[in-house]
Each structure stands twice: as structure tokens, then as C-alpha cells.
Amino acid sequence: MIKKSRSLYWLGVLFVILISSSCHPRQETLPWKPAAGPLFTPWAERVSPSTVWNVYPRPQQKRKEWLNLNGLWDVAILPVDEGPPQEFQGKILVPFPVEAALSGIAQKVTEKQKVWYRRFFSLPAHWRGKKIFLNFEASDWETSVWVNGQLVGTHRGGYDPFQFDISPAVKEGKQELLVAVWDPTDKGYQPRGKQVQNPQGIWYTAVTGIWGTVWLEPVSQVFIDSLQITPDVDRKEVKLQLGISSLQPELVVKAMVLAGEALVAEREVLPGEELVIPIENPRLWSPEDPFLYQLQIVVEREGEVVDEVESYFGLRKISLGKDGAGRTRIFLNNRPYFQLGTLDQGFWPDGIYTAPSEKAWIYDLNCLRSLGFNLLRKHVKVEPRRYYYWCDRLGVLIWQDMPSGDKYIGRNQADLARSKESVEQFKLELERIITNLRNHPSVVVWVLFNEGWGQFETEALTEWVKKMDPTRLVDSASGWVDRGVGDLKDIHAYPGPAMPPLEADRAVVLGEFGGLGLPVPFHTWQQDKSWGYRNFASFQELTQAYVDLIKKLKDYVHRGLSAAVYTQTSDVEIEVNGLLTYDRVQLKVLRDKVAPFNLELRSLGN
Questions:
Q1: Which of 93, 282, 473, 503 lies 20 to 30 Å from 524, alpha-carbon distance?
Q2: Distance of CA 515 to CAs 85, 295, 593, Å?
Q3: H helices then E strands: how many in the chain?
């Protein structure tokens, strides 16, 4: 049963959230209910098989036609060495992972088991003759897919979207989709972030299987298969690099940039030619003005459209520079810009890795903005692409961690000697993550390692990432094991605050501080033995302790600190260091007290 707050005020908040979610009563056509769980968010009430995660998943390369495959699937959990099930054991609500209550299962899966999924679907008649791509926004970790008994592909990676061309396997009538997923979690070397099989302290429940939207998309035989957008603030232009499936001489590529409905610029080139579009009187993207230009791209053959996509971009620049006192600082759009934000784990009590709905994401982001923050450090987890669209749209800067994996090193140890397989998998997933997120203006820093977790070949990896994406900053090691490379010198201090010594060529930042805890009765993962770096007894006490930290930070900002990241956005499982409770029902600090101090601190560093 979903628990509710005893406060009439928060019942009112719940009512507003639920009413705003939909103007129509929920109509169920399939039997489903969440599994038992210790805590649920308000949005869980609106989850249903017929409407679950029904928003277009890829906003920066959007086509008009697609088919959502989220909903109830057959499921079976079998020993890892067994083949496909003869009979399935029940139903699972995709895209929630097996361990989540909203999946309808909430069952732990070990490295000795494999999760099998099955569903049937039919294709629209007018898709006949087109290529059909099957897309997964996220599945953890090794995913194999069969269509009508034919293996169409296997993917290894827990955080990047992937697709398979299923056209050769498609037949007339009903199609059978079979998926098998195996995940070793902390028994393997792969990137896994904070997932462990036995959660405790700062380590949380593992997820297995599909945890992002599954969807189908038809394209013509000639189509745009990749799009890289590189804004250039200094040159007042945007550069587009398109991958087209077949470079035929009679093709023409047209691109239009719009501000709202007003045409800003348009260009026409042949496939393979450089596409550079000047932007007159550019409106720059920032958290204060997160303006997004719309982008329309069309591929034509003799005047006939063969493919078209919609996209967008923000014209912004992130860099290092010298302030008026000659100190190296983080600059946004060629000006010093202080970044203040929270460490964000991306966990949910009812969906674990998967938010109950898009509205839950938006609530978190807007709540932090109302508190005066302009930054999130997405901590050893990567979200589906639509999350970053909302960060782009709302104006929230992102420091994106690479999910950690393998072994750990101590504060004074040399980098790990990882196996060849471990190194290759880490680099493969890191490259995919950067490629998939590099068009988002909100993403401004790549964080390679956190506190020695899986840290290896720091200098070489930092140089590799800088070459792969020279438009962003690289934080090679957040906390603990600094090798003197990258763009940032990053320390952690609990409760802090603190500041590294200034450096000539790197900005100095406080990558983690705070960790002030407060367990709120009826809004915790478990009723006792909650954990925090430092615990308080009331909202007022917690608020004052937070404000005291911000007051201390002022001196560091005056001395040249470029950014500070508070731990953390919300409670997570037994950890109660959040500004929000884990169920997102209660804000634990007083907004009208916190926001003015945050805004003042930010202004000091600009």
C-alpha cells in the first residue's frame, strides 16, 4: 500500500500534483498493480500500463512516427545457463527494472540469473518497405534481442541507448520480441555506479534489465543516422555534422534554424559537405536565459523528402579564463560564472533507476532551481536522453560523472591495473555516453573518476576525452586522487566547506560538501537506523546548518573558488542527507531562508 503523509498540507500538495498530471480519469485495460515497497512517490498513483513513459525518447533527433513498446511484458527469471523459458512466470511493467516496486515484481536478481522478457506487437501497414529500428533507451547490462526467433543483436552497457535494425526479421502480421538480460552488478568489472547486491550506507539497490523506454521507429532506405551539433559563441555560428546512411550524389541536405517561429538562418549543402550556419545577433544559452534555437533538417532527392528530423541547440561556451585578479576560473559565455548545485544520485524509491514519470524529473529540477541552484552533478549514473532535454530547457548545468566500476584505490595509491577487458569496456561505454550527450548545452563537465573508484590511466584518459570533446571541461578526478591533469582541481570536504590551493592553469572547485542529514518520520526508506554524515532534529536546525555552510563559502568564492556541489538532492534509501525526502513529498529546508543565500553566493562569483 502506498504510504501518505499525515500532514494535511502535504495531502494538499499531493492532490495538486495528481490533478495536474492528467485532466482525465485513468482507464485501465490490463490488470496491474505495483509490488509492495517501503516508500512511493506521489507520481506512482498515475503509473499505468497504458500510459507509462509515453513521451518521445530522443528530442534532439526527433521524427514524427514512432511506436512505444512500454507496458506489460511477459517475464521469467531463470538460471543464467538456461535457454529461453518454455513458460513465462508473470508480467512486468516496462521500463521499470525488476527490482523496482513499479515493475510489479520488486525481486532481487543475482549474477547467477538471467531475466527473460517477451511481448508481441504489430507494425502499421504504411511502414511496409521501410527500415525498422528497435530502440532501447537503457538496459543493464548485457542485452540480447530476438525478433521472430532471429537474433538481431547483443549490447553490453548499462547507461547508453542502443538500437538494432530488425527489418530482416520482420514478417507479416504479429511480431514476437524476445529479450534476455544478464547483469553481474558488483561481481563484474563493468561500470555500475552505486549499484550493489547488498545495499548499505552510500551504496544502493542494484537494477537488472530494461530500465528505459523501448520503442520502434521507421525510416526510409536513406536516412540521417547521426547528428553532431557544435555551437561556436566566438564565431557566432553553429556547425552540423550529419551521418547519412547512403551518400548518393542526387541528395541535398537543407537545414533551417528558428527562434520560435521566426526563421533565423538556412543553408543547403550536398551530403558530406561541412554545414556551418551563422547566427546573427545570437541569444546565448545560460541558466538565467535557457534559450534554445530550433533546428529542422531535411534530406531531399530531386525535390522529394526522403528523411527529416527536428532538433535544437543552445548557443553557449564553457571554458577556463582569468578573472580580474588573474585567477583561473570557470567561464560561461566568456565571463566568470560561479556554479552552485547538488550531488544528484538519480534514484527513486518506487522505480530505483527509473523515475515514475517525466513529471517527477521536472519536479526535482524546478525544486532545485527555486532554491537558487544552477548546477547538478549527476553522480556515477547517466539518465535517458530526455532528462537532459529538460535540463537544457529549464537551464540546469550538468557535471556528468562516468559511472564507476571494477576495484577501488585509496587516497595515496597508484592507478589501478585493470584487465584488458575492463579497460576496453570502460572506454567503450564512456565514448558512447559522450557521443550521446554531447549535443546538450546543459552538459558542461565530464567527470571521469570519483574518489578513486575504478581509477586507472588518469592522464591518458583525460587527454583522450579532451580530444574527443574539446568543447567541454574535464574533471579527471573528483575528490581524493588528483593527478594534476584535467581542467579542475576538485576536493571533497564533509561537512566542509573547504577549498584547494589556487593553480595557474586549473580552476579549483569543491566537488562535494555538506551531507547534512535529517530523517523525516513516515518519509524514510526504513523507520530506524537511517544514515547521514551529520544528523539534525528539525527543518529549522537543518536550514540553519545549511545557511552556516553557505556563509562560510563566501570567503572561498572571494578567493577564487569556481564551483561547489552540496550533498545531496534527495535522501536515497537509508541515506538521509537530502534536501528532499526520498519520496519527494517533503522539502527539508526552508525555501525562503535558503534561496536568498544561494543566490547571493552565486552573484559573488560572477
A1: 93
A2: 46, 41, 18
A3: 7, 34
Which residues does residue 490 pair with via DSSP β-bridges, in sequence order? 478, 509
Kindly list the domain boundaries of the chain, sorted by start residue: 63-219, 231-313
Task: Specify whether the backbone of 446 is left (phi greater than 0), alpha (psi in -120 to 50) or beta.
Answer: beta
Alpha-carbon distance of 93 to 29, in angstroms, equals 14
Is residue 227 a contact partner of residue 243, using CB atoms and an 8 Å limit?
Answer: yes
Indicate the SS3 state at residue 424. Answer: helix
Q: State residue 429 phi and psi, 5-degree precision.
A: -70, -35
Find the radius of gyration of the CA atoms of the chain.
24
CA-to-CA dists, residue 343 to 78, 492, 570, 578, angstroms: 36, 12, 9, 9
Grid cell, residue 126, equals: 504504411
Instruction: Please tell me the distance from the alpha carbon of residue 182 to that of residue 38, in angstroms, as a whole number.
Output: 26
Same CATH fold, 231-313 and 63-219? no
CATH for 231-313, among 3.40.50.1460, 3.30.230.70, 3.40.190.10, 2.60.40.10? 2.60.40.10
pTM (whole model) above 0.85:
yes
pLDDT tens digits for 82-135? Answer: 999 999 999 999 999 999 999 999 999 999 999 999 999 999 999 999 999 999
CATH of 63-219 given 3.40.50.1980, 1.10.260.40, 3.50.30.60, 2.60.120.260: 2.60.120.260
Residue 315: phi, psi to the nearest 5?
Answer: -90, 100
